[in-house]
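[Automated response] Your request has been received and processed.

Submitted sequence:
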Amino acid sequence: MANTMVVSQPVAMQSTVLSNQWSTGIFDCLDDLPSCCFSYWCFWCAACQTSRDYGEALCLPLVDLFGLGGCVPAIAMAMRADMRHRYGIQGSLMEDFGYAYILPACVYCQMYREVKARQAQVQPVILIVPNNPPPPAAPALQASAPPPPATPPPQYPNYEAFPPSLP
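Generated structure:
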């Protein structure tokens, strides 16, 4: 039997696509029909899944449902801006706000497709490490130092006389 241990460690690699654009357009939902349907018919589930897949908290998009009076999609806008920054995609904060405010399902569908495209480029690295024990250490040629002299145990006061009796 071979004494080897296989260790598999996912390693994030820089994207090989050197594009500064989104991998799909905001209206390219029909290119990926399942994610399109999921985003439109179960919007909050799709938004939460996209958030989780991107590495954020699962229920973070639900803050948009209740936060800031429900009129400013701050989380969708912030996630889109962060995704642009992380992947080096060109755009502006006003563009992120406009898309997130007017087309939130399209925004989450586009972000979902972008995360899928970027994660497909991360490949696991497999290392094969021998599992042989190290050779035994050579015996020491020097004589060891003598042990230190034994010290007597510390003397503690006699606490049996406590508490002292009061006169």
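Summary generated for your ticket: Helices lie at 33-41, 43-54, 62-66, 74-87, 93-102, 104-119. The radius of gyration is 32 Å.
If you did not submit this request, please reply to this message.
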